[in-house]
Amino acid sequence: MGEKKRVLIVGGVAGGASAATRLRRLSEDAEIVMFERGEHVSFANCGLPYHIGEVIPQRESLLVTTPEMLRKRYRIDVRPRHEVLSIDRQAKEIVVRNLQAGAEIRERYDALILSPGAAPIRPSVPGADHPQVMTLRNIADMDAIKRVVDEERPANAVVIGGGYIGLEMAEALRERNVGVTLVELAPQVFAAADTEMVQAVHDQLRLHGVDLRLKNSVERIEPSEGNALAATLQDGSAVDAGLVIMAIGVRPEVTLAKEAGLAIGETGGIAVSDRLQTSDPNIYAIGDAIEVKHFVTGGPALIPLAGPANRQGRIAADNILGGDSVYQSSQGTAICKVFDIAIGMTGMSERLLKKQGIAYEKVYVHPQSHAGYYPGARPLSLKLLFAPNDGRILGAQATGQDGVDKRIDVLATAMRAGMSAHDLVDLELTYAPPYGSAKDPVNYAGFVASNSLKGIVGLAQPDEAWALAEHPRPDTLLLDVRTEAEVAAGGIPGAMHIPVDELRDRLSEIPKDKMIIAYCKVGLRGYLATRQLMQRGFAARNLTGGYTTYKAYAAARTNPTEAASPTTNDSPMNGKENANMPAAAATSSGSKASVEPADVVKEIDATALQCPGPIMRLAEELKDLKDGKAVSVLAADPGFGPDVTGWCRSTGNRLADLATEHGMIRATVVKGIGRETAASGDHASNSHPQAAGSSAADSAALAQIASMKKHKSMVVFSGDFDKVMASLIIANGAAAMGSKVTMFFTFWGLSALRKPQNVKVSKNLIEKMFGWMMPRGADKLTLSKMNMGGMGLAMIKGIMKRKNVTPLPELIQAAQKAGVTLVACTMSMDLMGIKKEELLDGVEYAGVGAYLDSAESGNVNLFI
Ligand code: FAD
Predict the structure, then answer these.
(1) Ligand 1 pocket: which residues have CB below 6 Å?
(2) Helix H segments across 293-440?
(3) What percent of the chain clears pLDDT 90, i.e. is strictly above it?
(4) Is 46 annotated as catalytic?
(5) Which of 289, 339, 808, 859 counts the most CB atoms within 10 A of its CB?
């Protein structure tokens, strides 16, 4: 491998830089020249969204290596800002333009590697060429987006496209307190995975205040007020945005190859052999620009991921220097972080298997990420797809807060090794309580799949259960084997209920002439029940993944555009679902239900409990409490929010509060005060086709959590300059973070709302005296301490001016502009003789009830 070859590389990032360094490691004699159109080489494209979100604070961290370093350590001739314009295959030369100097040169090669990547697709939407409509591919794009976020501080952004770049950008922008509307044409985000598996991602997005618009698209983008844009969506709605991110996908950059007459594959990528040679043996192509062979189907595919690009770089280098390395195939192993959860996958999705007519079986399991008794265990949802004849693994998908990467990686490796679902049973994986379980989720998926393949237990799928719920059949019976408490939280309509522990004694209640489909929360007790029934002569199957998978399936079946959208007031959910929501939820969406603050007598940490543990524990604790007393439960299972909402609704307890705490769910439940709601006939499992009802209610519960997080209220009692100033700084900050803020000005606080000029109103003597005592407007307020006859105040105002702190009257205006509701307490106004005419325009007038209502629906309530 010591030949003195001249190797030219087009593209200096993932594939290109990998190829270049491998070439040098293999040959000290090769002449290596790497051309990169952009300013930077070998940067971390995958880290770009995280710098915008400031999770990666240092921009330099993304510059994995520099041209200087590549020159010094590897003696690679790195030429940034050089664009390769064409390839002269006859002469074995390329034409390159130096983008800085403008000159064009020709460079000779013995071997040429094309690693030009894939470019973001820009649809031909009117207005898509506006400078504030941006794409994210490289450092320059990142800098441009970050500058808008840093300097222009847009209140809202529209992200078009729910692939991983769109999802990462939505999260990054929320991290920067920018409101996000995510518009996706498909009925789901992360289109590579199956719809029921991404419901957890949809929930996460909504939980973090992303306004998710599925089955929708942007029709046009126009300049709006100030620096903003208005995006008009296909459903006719308009969204204002200071920034639009286009992330609808990428297209392989093949112009150079095409113009050189190289073969292009049927998917539109550059066609290559398994040695990564193009149709010209002296030209190799790698990375996002090429068409690869799919590991499962053997057919052509475009799989633009960093792992394959890097590996292909090595392989091309090997082969150029006389080696014989083969690129087998790509299997699409990918993972994406979406706020507190991850979604990961490998291989084929069910949708693709169906489309390609490949026979498959599937199982769902929902184990804990590690031993449930060790703190920090989180539920994990895993779907395994395998061949029905020999169990060969065809694909896997997982979601959860912890351990998704590990399971998908094990399964990706197992797939690569040609293993079957049976083989997963035998995998010996690491185990100690903080890290896993003696039966790892991967083993567990193997047990279920293997049992099914061997006929030890027959499986039913969620679509069958859904169909049965909608159209009951005389020959099939759904059997719910969960506990009373779980059933109270919701179930599949029409199911017979016998808890698994009572099943042996109640077999006589079950008809022998029907197929029994048993189900529990996640599939384990359903399996136990099915095995009992089968051994007693019943025809029985177990619903794989239990009610948890059923609910995800149901949510996917329900029209996604009807799901709750916490940031829009005109969501179809409003009014429709709230009728079925418990009092707390109704209050959060603006109803005037009068609710007392909860009298919490016990706090329960149920984070170590597996589902349905938290609900059971809650039921247990409430049993001995008096009506009106409350219990607060912290649970790790994200499904606990919807569960506890349904449970309260059907048991007649009141859900006083539902909030997130570090990615976990805290529910405060008041015993007994909800019976009227429950009695009004909205029992989850018998009012509505369950699927639609439960998913809508779940979405509403998430919307409730999100909207509570977004509600802040403040009582401004003081008329001191410094205190009013502090309250307005907080209010403006919270409004900028997308919160709805209500400031309730009472007693001396009313001074801040007074107009500076003298307004002629008729007052009696006492009212006049108050009028004289109370400063007239924000500019006349004095310091609470060290006012020193106005000297202290003057000093403070001087410092504020020097440090560019906005003066108080302007802060009030800014708050009003940002949508902060300024409410003057009518009771104080009456007592102190302050008239409406004396107060600033735009101030609202209300009594203490309205304030309490707003405080109840929020998660922050300050008294200043
Ligand atoms: P690139 O790394 O894109 O490099 C191609 C380079 O070629 C470009 O810099 C381009 O300027 C240059 N070029 C093109 N034409 C010419 C020309 N004519 N002359 C000179 N130079 C040229 N993948 C993952 O697996 N996981 C992730 O988490 C992930 N996150 C991502 C996040 C973002 C924001 C982006 C944009 C991509 C992400 N990817 C991720 C994808 C991953 O970065 C790509 O799969 C990988 O970079 C592809 O490598 P490549 O060498 O083919 O192309």
Answers:
(1) 10-11, 13-16, 35-38, 45-46, 48-49, 83-84, 115-117, 136-138, 165, 253, 256, 287-289, 304-307, 309
(2) 306-320, 350-355, 404-416, 421-426
(3) 66
(4) yes
(5) 289
